[in-house]
């Protein structure tokens, strides 16, 4: 049986960037139908945004609380099954908690919550609900990132010794928040973003990618966190030394003041026998470097790649697999798990491979540890989740 999951959205209305990305990703596999939402904190803008998307005006709600109240009054076979939350960070926890308590599955933009305390509380709610929870760490959806993880896990590189991960942006090299840039305004506002700027917005992506590909967990951090643009209230640049459980070490860089840079996320992992390198600017290629033989280039859509890479490959070889496709892979994978649950089946390992609540908690612990380390004279700070 083909299920088309009924999707609701919170946030992502007129003038928002990421909402459109989520909607495109959800549509790509025809696994969801957007049936309504609360698209803005302003009731009129929210309703107008939904109507502009061609939705039933009766399901274009003025607030997320109205959404849950009225959706739960509908028959079960009509109400929303999945809620996509694409709001600023301070409006993540409450709608996610309410959705789960209403029996709905959740797809949530990162970072997961406003604070680690909220993240731990949300983790309890997810466990108690038994519902699926996906956090959109997009870069884990790329086929060659899946391949990199599979190669490291297979042991062909030997024990991991070194991890380098970087996320350079340049769009906040000037005080964009002092103008009419809505995206810059909330990301640099501690009341909406939380205690971190660049480290919360893109540092969490780099941290997640480092742990995902290496298969290791960070145990300690030594951070140099900076606010470079005068008058800015949150960090816009940082470099962090990492220690992983098991003995490996690493370096993480995340900056939004690297003038001229866009979004060239890059990761390198080195083991005893060889290493690998992936970057978003050439997302179809994975370099695998050996100690005693020439470098190999792995490409998407090839038979030699792992089942995880093939499961997340959408186009024939030579056609670029990009950001929207990687985003869609997360939506598709969680949809496959929800449908398997409905049918009483065990989802495939490939479908289960999406970031969830555990990654969200670790991301919030990363943010709080990075900022604490940057403010401290202590050389190493343990990454504790408590």
TrEMBL record:
Pfam families: GFO_IDH_MocA, GFO_IDH_MocA_C3. InterPro entries: Gfo/Idh/MocA-like_OxRdtase_N, Gfo/Idh/MocA_oxidoreduct, GFO_IDH_MocA-like_dom, NAD(P)-bd_dom_sf. Residues 146-277 form the GFO/IDH/MocA-like oxidoreductase domain. SUPFAM superfamilies: Glyceraldehyde-3-phosphate dehydrogenase-like, C-terminal domain (SSF55347), NAD(P)-binding Rossmann-fold domains (SSF51735). GO terms for molecular function: nucleotide binding. Residues 6-134 form the Gfo/Idh/MocA-like oxidoreductase N-terminal domain. This is Putative dehydrogenase.
